[in-house]
Amino acid sequence: MGNETSFSYKGATLTADVVIVGAGPSGCSAAYDLSVKGLRVLLLDRTDFPRKKSCAGGLTIKAARALRYSLLPVIQKTVCNLSVSCRMRHRRLLKSIDPICHLVERSAFDFFCLKKTVAAGACFAVVKRIDQIVESPRTVALMTEGGLIRSRFLIGADGVNSRIRRLTARFLKFQRGFAVEGIVDRAPPAGLGMGFDFGRVSGGYGWVFPKQGHLNVGLYTLRPDVKITRQDLVDYALERIGRPMPTRITGYPLGMGGWRYRPGNGRVLLVGDAAGLVDPLLGEGLYHAIISGQRAAAAIVDAMDTGSDACNTYANGLMPIQHDLVFARVASAFFYRMPGIGLMLVASPPARIPLMTGFSRGISLLDIFLNAYRFWFGLPGSVSRKQD
Ligand SMILES: Cc1cc2nc3c(=O)[nH]c(=O)nc-3n(C[C@H](O)[C@H](O)[C@H](O)COP(=O)(O)OP(=O)(O)OC[C@H]3O[C@@H](n4cnc5c(N)ncnc54)[C@H](O)[C@@H]3O)c2cc1C
């Protein structure tokens, strides 16, 4: 990141109020809120920024709204319509008057968020190895290759393969989805919108996201037993958009199963992919990463102010997220078993209108469903649970 924002701790014993491991969206969201409240925050990552992260960069309206600052400088495109198909057939365009999603490049987005977080007061440092975590009633000690770091609380924001989760043996029922993505170096043809091809992969979909000067293509599955290969992606891209072939192909797991995550007690909180908070229906992880980081921060601030139990407060804050995850899990079990019928239902006006309106208003999937249910069955009041 450069000297003005880097932080050297080699050979020293450091103390901070909160140490956050992982400077992705979940870690930065937590660090930002804690720093604004005046806490001493040390944000650690194993790589310096900017760095590459496998991600299609679809930032829904609810995710963009949850952030504490404007994202304008890093938005590449804003999308109103969705093109959807079942196994590349019966393509339909789902239209919205208002935007439903922004498209960003993850390396630029993450670097931007980190710079905002450092400007808010957090210290950033690169840590190559974390060997051990020792929790005591009042502190957490992190043994790293650079020295010992002590803090009042530790947030594990280090993604799907979280070292913090493994070292503290928290959340053993963690699950993984998987996605492969690539870049097609070609300007998006006029009229090519954000597209999803459901059922192209068992338990998932193929996607095409048009960005500035290139297309991001990929395949996603929520099923850990389904293997997606590089060749699958090449075949999909050729069939969907023709040549040139995708390059810079990478595959990466997504953290799931977070409806079962219980923070327990102690001083270690997991957020984002580390806590398995990716929505299994659509593979969206950024929104829950951002708001879980913020809720962990709020729980810690409350604990430091009032002496409350941070894990307990965080568990309460996670509940609405976990309700959404349970809904997404049930919906995905139905949808991916019969994507043709599922898509027919989604594209029918009773579902399509509340869905697209809900996306543009930044409402969670569960609330979109509840709103539609109330509306179509003539029940009073619509639900718009405020998540952030
Ligand atoms: C191919 C693909 C496409 C996706 N597309 C979308 C999309 O379009 N929209 C969407 O909402 N979601 C998408 N997701 C999911 C989204 O990328 C994740 O949910 C999101 O990045 C989670 O944020 P996070 O901060 O929890 O973790 P991450 O973004 O993974 O950040 C974790 C950070 O921790 C650091 N770290 C890891 N291990 C250590 C360690 N041992 N020590 C120190 N630091 C460490 C990493 O370097 C990284 O900076 C996609 C995922 C994949 C794989």
Characterize this entry briefly.
34% of the residues lie in helices and 27% in strands. With 388 residues, it is α/β, with parallel strands linked by helices.
Bound molecules: flavin-adenine dinucleotide
Structural class of the helices, strands and pairings? alpha/beta
Strand content: 25-35%
Our measurement of the CA-to-CA distance between the termini, rounded to an integer number of angstroms, reads 29 Å
The CATH class label of the domain at 14-77 and 104-174 and 256-328 is Alpha Beta
- Runs with pLDDT <50, length 5+? 2-8
Mean residue pLDDT: 93
Query: What is the H/E string?
Result: EHEEHEEEEHEEEEHEEEEHEEHHHHH
Under CATH, the topology of the domain at 14-77 and 104-174 and 256-328 can be stated as: FAD/NAD(P)-binding domain
Radius of gyration: 21 Å
Identify the CATH architecture of the domain at 14-77 and 104-174 and 256-328. 3-Layer(bba) Sandwich
Q: How many strands, what sense, and barrel or not for the largest sheet? A: 7 strands, mixed
Number of helices: 10
Helix content: 25-40%
Identify the overall geometry.
globular
Q: Total strand count, please?
A: 17
CATH H level of the domain at 14-77 and 104-174 and 256-328: which superfamily? FAD/NAD(P)-binding domain
